[in-house]
Amino acid sequence: MGFLEGKKILITGVASNRSIAWGCAEAMHRQGAEIALTYQNDKLKSRVEEMAHKCGSDIALPLDVAQDADIEALFKALGERWDGLDGIVHSIAFAPREQLEGDYVDAVTREGFNTAHEISSYSFAALAKAGRGMMEGRNGALVTMTYLGAVRAVPNYNVMGVAKASLEANVRYLAASLGPHGTRVNAVSAGPIRTLAAAGISDFRDMLKKVEERTPLRRNVTIEEVGNAAAFLCSDLASGITGDILYVDTGYNILG
Ligand code: 0WD
User: Fold this and answer.
1) What is the ipTM of this complex?
2) Which is the catalytic residue, given 157, 173, 247, 252?
């Protein structure tokens, strides 16, 4: 029996079979969870529906986190299918491409800053707020995806690092707020992985190579490994863990 048997988990941010969210969906399905997926726009709809089927699910719902109406409609639709919710995986980030190259001070703009924070950090609080009714008293968990650029000045990551710092603070505030209701809130800080979102970061290939050469395990992390860690954090095995950032990065963050 899997360690997520009987749990109902909503997973956002599947854009392709390389997405970290897909690694989470497969891992959680393997551990016995019932899965619901979301897709950002109509272009992704049929692909995400197919991916949901692979996890034995027929629940794929639209969600653009920039739209309050989408967030409200998502939980309304989910409530018609499920009588409660045990987990939410937030695996969404966005910053305009021109923000993610060169010198931070040159690149940053008011609009780029606001967009990065709204889509990559505020949206986590928005999902927590909209989903809390369905999660009340079920010992459920929220998990989001962050990156080392939240706590170190990583070249080219720029405003996304500032937004990830906000996201990590969001994890702590949400954990304090939702803990008394029985909901835990954590983040996985993943090492670099070649995905659609990563393709927007300038010199990403060099980042992968640098990690592979220096990190304790001498290789990059996979979406399966990140998915397994997220599955653990959503499960009762992690019942004592909240407000935490779990590094799943083959050890890179410990290096000086
Ligand atoms: O190296 C990496 N790939 C790392 C990613 C290292 C550490 C953390 N992360 C984080 C990302 O910052 C993000 O928070 O993991 C999360 C998932 O990213 P991913 O799996 O690397 O990227 P991807 O497969 O592109 O999924 C992110 C998706 C978007 O994809 P695109 O590339 O089409 O923007 O987030 C979704 C979208 O599907 N997304 C949205 N969903 C709903 N509403 C929105 C939105 N407004 N904007 C983006």
Assistant:
1) 0.98
2) 157
